[in-house]
Amino acid sequence: MTRRLIATPDPDSVQRLVDRAAIHDLLSRYARACDTKEWSVYRSLFTPDALIDYTAAYGIRGSLAEVSDWIARVVSPSSVPRTQHLVTNLEIAWEGHDHATAHAYFINPNVHRDATGKESLLLNGGSYTATVRRTNEGWRIARLMDKLTFSHRGELEQFQLPNLEGL
Length: 167
Known about the structure:
The chain has 167 residues and is of the alpha+beta class. It has one domain (11-155): Nuclear Transport Factor 2, Chain: A, CATH 3.10.450. Helices cover 26% and strands 43% of the residues. The termini are far apart.
């Protein structure tokens, strides 16, 4: 069976695929920076004039400097020792060649430690809306807003597999 190319790829459509991959990588690096608590990496993912709004998920709204200082304190290793930010279902609406709005879902299982040292699971889910802009350094987040869909706090348990011998 011979494959036949139906149409020559449009250079603009190929560039859109490259840009889509770069924006997906940008949001993945954002999630990883939050989990590894690498706040210098976190800051590098935004434009200098970025506006970040976490008010819909227990947070603050402000400039990159204000929010990155705040998040470094709130998500410290002593209060939130383990996190896992998962970003899924990415949709991008293009606004020219150098601007876009990305919508994605997030699921965040976090281990929260209270003042007594007791750990619990804090599970958050919701969505991000990110206005992104192409810069000399690549795609960067100019505006980020989250919306919390659910939040659950509960006991942190280690699941034990049942004894399957004899089955």
